[in-house]
Amino acid sequence: MRFLLSLLLVNFVAASYDSWACGSGKISTFFAYLVSLPAKDREHINLCCFHHDAQYDGIDAGQLDITKRQSDWEFKQCLSDSKYFYSREIIKNVYVWSVQLNTWFNENIYCKFAWC
């Protein structure tokens, strides 16, 4: 019986993880997913990430007339709209810091050695 429950739980987590939009690669997605597990409004968090990613795609394609910095601000505001403390304070700060770190890395390290 425990084996079946464990198998069911692993299947549920894997299915939920597959639809997770937060993170820019396998490792960051895994950690973003892990940090979000205690959150009561994971759908809201995932929607914020989905919109943020869509904005970045639109900016990169020249279809949106906003900057990535503006998109990051909207992402922060979206996470701030949560009615739950954990999401509003912990998730927001961890995710926004991660986005800022990724942006800094891309602008200051990656683009110095690759075509950007």
Any descriptors?
single chain, 116 residues, mainly alpha, 5 helices, phospholipase A2 activity, signal, PLipase_A2_dom_sf, PLA2-like
Description of the molecule:
By secondary structure, this protein is mainly alpha-helical. Helix content is 77%, strand content 0%. It has helices spanning 2-18, 26-36, 42-60, 68-80, 85-113. GO terms for molecular function: phospholipase A2 activity. Residues 1-15 form the signal peptide.
Q: Which class do the helix and strand fractions yield?
A: mainly alpha
Radius of gyration: 16 Å
Number of helices: 5
Detail the poorly predicted runs. 4-15
Outline:
The protein is built from 5 helices and no strands.
Any chance you could write out the topology, listing elements then pairs?
Elements: H1 2-18, H2 26-36, H3 42-60, H4 68-80, H5 85-113
GO molecular function, one term: phospholipase A2 activity
Keywords: Signal
InterPro entries: PLA2-like, PLipase_A2_dom_sf
